[in-house]
Structure formats: structure tokens, C-alpha cells
Specification:
The chain has one domain. It has 6 helices and no strands. The protein has helices at residues 2-26, 33-39, 47-51, 59-69, 73-78, 93-113. The termini are close together.
Length: 114
């Protein structure tokens, strides 16, 4: 059962990651989807793999996307809180990586309990 829940959570994270991509393009923060993927260290040709659920963003890509485009890792990973970071919420990258790791561990424990 934990594997099924894990796939559901991963799919939800991937969908929010793709939403972030679309919003970054619409808001003019990056030129297009390809530019977004390249900015987070992904090959532009893999966009359809994200859409089809074949590929999910890595922790490093999530951190990079949040860093570059001002999104909350709590929202992206756990779907809690505000989607965008307020200026006062922005921390140095190291602090946000630590926060994200804590949230990912919390999510793993929740999934393992189910």
C-alpha cells in the first residue's frame, strides 16, 4: 500500500512542478518550457516524460525551481501553505534545502504509516 501512496504523492508533486513551469513562462520569468527545464538542470526533451508520469523532478530540481522562481517548497512537495514565497520568507539556499529535507522526511514517515 505504501508504494501506491508514494506514486500518488510523486504524481502530485510532478503536477505542481509542471504548474510552476507553466506559471514561470506565463509570468515572464523564463522564455518557455524548455528554458525552465534547462534552468533546473533537466533536458528540454523530457517535458513529455513529466507529463506522462514517467519522470518526476529530483530533490535538486525542486530546490532549484523554488530558488529561481520564488515558490515554496512546502507547497511544491506537500501542497501546504502559500504557493509563492513572500520576500520575508526567502532564506539562503542552504536553509531551504534543510527545510525541504525535513519536509521530505516527514512526508516519508506519513506514507510509511499508511
Amino acid at each position: 500500500m505504501a508504494k501506491a501512496n508514494n506514486k500518488i504523492h510523486t504524481a502530485a508533486i510532478t503536477q505542481r512542478f509542471l504548474l510552476l513551469c507553466e506559471e514561470a513562462v506565463v509570468d515572464g520569468l523564463c522564455k518557455n518550457r524548455s528554458a525552465f527545464l534547462e534552468s533546473v538542470g533537466e533536458y528540454q526533451s523530457n517535458y513529455s516524460k513529466f507529463e506522462d508520469g514517467i519522470r518526476a523532478p529530483t530533490l535538486e530540481q525542486i530546490v532549484k525551481a523554488c530558488e529561481l522562481y520564488g515558490y515554496s517548497a512546502n507547497w511544491l512537495v506537500l501542497n501546504i501553505g502559500d504557493k509563492k514565497l513572500k520576500a520575508s520568507d526567502k532564506k539562503p539556499l542552504e536553509g531551504r534545502v534543510t527545510d525541504l529535507e525535513v519536509q521530505m522526511n516527514r512526508l516519508r514517515r506519513i506514507i510509511e504509516k499508511k
